[in-house]
Every structure is written in structure tokens, then in C-alpha cells.
TrEMBL record:
It comes from Oceanobacillus kimchii. Residues 2-164 form the Hydroxymethylglutaryl-coenzyme A synthase N-terminal domain. It holds the Pfam family HMG_CoA_synt_C. The keyword tRNA processing does not apply. This is Hydroxymethylglutaryl-CoA synthase.
Length: 388
């Protein structure tokens, strides 16, 4: 029985900041952002959007009434959770109107959470082939104004419907993973911004990739030649390329060229959104599927997932016949085109807006937010959501 990705949804806030303008304001050569790390635009989340609404909006695009009845598990991968106790999956479950006889949980391991969710979903579907699992990767990356990590911020969510006989990609059983207790990136519970040792984190990202890739080769007897493309977790779009380059000498020039070309296509969406932590790998996959003209049914796609702290995994999927019919390239292009550019000063004002943490009542207008599902305020220490 095949198990894998049946549908993919994606949502990002309607606001963005041009990285050229951020660079100039910060006294940095623009090429450091646009070429050095490979970022052109940064999605900026208004106060009317949080990780719950981003995930719910991403899922609302793809779920029909049958899906809502068949889903009996919601797994929410995030490192931007809104509650230390209640899972964001429960909020999304209610906002989407899913049938009540379902499990709803939240997973946390930095940017790896959604991958863990997919692997858990595979096991559930194997035991319950008539059911479906909604896996969400939703985050708002915050490092702070004028910090070294500011240029790698972003916001967005990816929703994946996992089922038997998937129409987009079968997830293969073979996977390799590796864990080590390191401090390359972390966010203590008392901080709303992350801490990162950038150089060390980059080194560990590559080291973990080499470990899981070498283990994968040993276990499967496969090589780079077996893959039409490899997608990477992308904290910024140059990061995956750095890792890919360390193994390209294993194959000839033709394969190297193919993998590098497909890699560039996989970065197009991330380049214009920024880092979305748990969703970044799957935004890369979506970008590849919707922008490549070379992919065909039966192609094998490699996937490298990395979550600081750290956990890494390499696994693969096989594209299914007619996969392209399940994509929403036109709608996603329209979403990008409709976004509103904001100035650096507007971005800074939005960044400094805070959701009350002292029990204060707050109310925000959603008139300027085109999203179907929004955050409208705070009452009794509870977030108040609206489905328009």
C-alpha cells in the first residue's frame, strides 16, 4: 500500500519587505542578502496572523468536505507555539470544522517538527488506510530588529494531507536520521526571539546532512543519480546549496547540472517568503513541483530535513501519475502577486506590536487582512479567532 502526500496547501501573510531596502537601511550591501544568502523578499506577519491562522488558511485551501470527515488526526509542527499546554492543532481542528473523532497534537523539534509529523502519519495510515492525517508546518521566524539573523526571518505555513494511495507523492519507507544535543539555535521559553550561533549552525546543518546521506546510501545502495531532485530545509536559500555541493563530486557533470538546476527551482518560493522553520522543506518541495518542467511520474525526490538542537533526516518520495493536476500553481502565483510591499519603518512598527501577556483585553480590525481566517484579539487570556 502506498502512503504519502495527497494534497499540499500553502499560505503566507499578505505583507512583505524588500531585502534590498532592508539592506540599505541597515548599512549593508544589498548583494549580501540577495546573493550572499539568496533572499529577495521577507514575508511579514501582521498582528492579525499567528501560527494558528497561517496553518488554518493553508489547510482551508485544499480540504473538501470528504477530507474533513476522513481526517482523524491533526499534527501541528511548530516552534512558534501559542500555548505551553494546549496544542495549536486543536485550534486549527475547530477553525476548519473537522469531524470531532480525531486526535490533535503539537510536535516540537525546531524545524524538524513537520517531518516527524509525516512519519507519524505514515504509521497511522498503515493501520487505518481509510483515514487521513493533516500535517501542518507553521512558523513565524523572529530574531529581532538589527540582529545578525534579521535577514533570515519570514512567516508562513504548509499543510499536507497524508493518505493511502496519494495523488502527489508516495513517501518511501527508507529513511535515515541522526540526533545530537548541540546548541546551534534555540529559544528559551522566556524569549519571543531566537538565539543562534550562525557559523556553528551552518556547519552542523552540513555535518548532519553528510551523516544521514551516507547512512542512506549504505542502507539503500542508492546514489545521487537515482534522484531527479533533492529538496532541503531552507533557513535561507543558499544553505541547501552549500550542503549539496559537498556531495556533488560523487557523480558526473550531467547529474551535477541536473541537481543544481532543480535545486534553484526548489528555492523560488522560499526566496520570496523567507524562513518558515517547520514548513521550509515542504515549501521547497512545493516550489520544485510547481516550477519544474522536467519532473515526471516515477521520479524520485530526495528530502533533507534539519531541526537545530539537533535532529536530521533524509528520506525520499516518488511522484505519482498526474501529480501536477493536484497542484495550485496559478493560485499561489496570484497570492504572491497580490502581496503588499511595506517600508522598513512599517515593518519595524509591525514587528514591535505585541500580543498582551498580562491578561489585557485587545481587539484588532481585520479589514485590511485579506485572509479568510484571522486573529481578532485577546479576551480572558485567550486568543479570539474569526472565520470570515
Amino acid at each position: 500500500m502506498k502512503i504519502g502526500i495527497d494534497k499540499i496547501g500553502f499560505y503566507a501573510p499578505h505583507l512583505y519587505l524588500d531585502m534590498n531596502e532592508l539592506a540599505k537601511e541597515r548599512g549593508v550591501e544589498p548583494e549580501k542578502f540577495t546573493i550572499g544568502i539568496g533572499q529577495e523578499k521577507m514575508a511579514v506577519s501582521p498582528i492579525t496572523q499567528d501560527t494558528v491562522t497561517l496553518a488554518a488558511n493553508a489547510a482551508a485551501q485544499i480540504l473538501d468536505d470528504t477530507d474533513k470527515q476522513d481526517i482523524d488526526m491533526v499534527i501541528f509542527g511548530t516552534e512558534s507555539g501559542i500555548d505551553h499546554s494546549k496544542s495549536a492543532a486543536v485550534n486549527v481542528h475547530q477553525l476548519l470544522g473537522l469531524q470531532p473523532h480525531a486526535r490533535a497534537i503539537e510536535l516540537k523539534q525546531a524545524c524538524y517538527g513537520a517531518t516527524a509529523g509525516i512519519q507519524m502519519a505514515r504509521g497511522h495510515i498503515a493501520l487505518n488506510p481509510n483515514r487521513k492525517v493533516l500535517v501542518l508546518g507553521s512558523d513565524i521566524a523572529r530574531y529581532g530588529l538589527k540582529t545578525p539573523g534579521e535577514s533570515t526571518q519570514g512567516a508562513g505555513a504548509v499543510a499536507l494531507l497524508i493518505s493511502a494511495e496519494p495523488r502527489i507523492m508516495e513517501i518511501e519507507q527508507e529513511s535515515t536520521y541522526y540526533t545530537d544535543d548541540i546548541m546551534d539555535f534555540w529559544r528559551p521559553v522566556y524569549s519571543d526571539t531566537a538565539f543562534v550561533d550562525g557559523k556553528y549552525s551552518n556547519e552542523q546543518y552540513i555535518a548532519f546532512f553528510q551523516k544521514v546521506w551516507n547512512s542512506y546510501k549504505e542502507q539503500t545502495d542508492r546514489s545521487l543519480e537515482d534522484f531527479a531532485a533533492i529538496c532541503f530545509h531552507l533557513p535561507y536559500t543558499k544553505m541547501g546549496l552549500k550542503a549539496l555541493r559537498t556531495v556533488l563530486d560523487e557523480v558526473g557533470e550531467e547529474t551535477q547540472t541536473r541537481l543544481k538546476d532543480q535545486y534553484q527551482l526548489s528555492t523560488q518560493y522560499n526566496r520570496n517568503i523567507g524562513n518558515i522553520y517547520t514548513g521550509s522543506l515542504y515549501l521547497s518541495l512545493l516550489s520544485l513541483l510547481e516550477n519544474s518542467e522536467e519532473l515526471k511520474a516515477g521520479d524520485k525526490i530526495g528530502m533533507y530535513s534539519y531541526g537545530s538542537g539537533a535532529v536530521g533526516e533524509f528520506f525520499s518520495g516518488i511522484l505519482q501519475e498526474g501529480f501536477e493536476k493536484q497542484l495550485h500553481h496559478t493560485e499561489h502565483n496570484a497570492m504572491f502577486e497580490k502581496r503588499q510591499k511595506i517600508s522598513v519603518s512599517e515593518y519595524e512598527k509591525i514587528f514591535e506590536q505585541q500580543i498582551p501577556t498580562d491578561g489585557s483585553v485587545a481587539e484588532w480590525s481585520t479589514n485590511e487582512d485579506p485572509a479568510e481566517i484571522c486573529l481578532t484579539g485577546m479576551q480572558n487570556h485567550q486568543r479570539v479567532y474569526q472565520v470570515k
